[in-house]
Every structure is written in C-alpha cells, then in structure tokens.
Amino acid sequence: MIYIARTQRVLLGFLMSSIILPHIIIKDFSMGFISYIQFATLVFLLAAFFIHYEFIMENDCLSYQIKFWKMPIYKKVIYPEQIIQLKFTTVRMGLLSV
Hints:
Helix content: 25-40%
Oligomer: single chain
Radius of gyration: 19 Å
C-alpha cells in the first residue's frame, strides 16, 4: 500500500500572499533588510509547496520518503525485526480543530 501526503497548500498560499500583497498594494519594491528576509521566506515557502511525503507498506518492510517534485530528499526503511512498539494517535486536520 502506498500513502501519499502533500503539504497544506492553502496555508502556504495564504502565507505567500501575505508576504507579496503588501508590497503590491503599497507599490514599494525597495530591497531593504526586511525585504531580504521576506524574499528568503518566500523562497522557502515556494520550495515547501512542492514537497510531498510517501509512506509504503510492504510485506517485508515499511518505508518513508520525503520528495521534492520527484527527487527523493530523505528515505527511511524499517524492517519487522526493528519494530519494538507501535503507537497510534488521532490527528484532526483543519484550522478550527480542538
């Protein structure tokens, strides 16, 4: 079985627009110190937009992979003899989760 998860793109889009829109509205495109920090944050958010996670369950192993587009960044493979304990938790998604 293969499970694929992507980053929360709505939240990333909101954060990117909160960085870009004030400069468009005010029409201030000067590159001061704070603008360099905003530009670096924008590049980080844009990169995070293309990251997705992949969890593969097979008969002989479990593997977890983080990919940027199609390129693997991180991969972890666990075999049954390495598993000591499994702990399951409930995760609620959404902005108003309690």
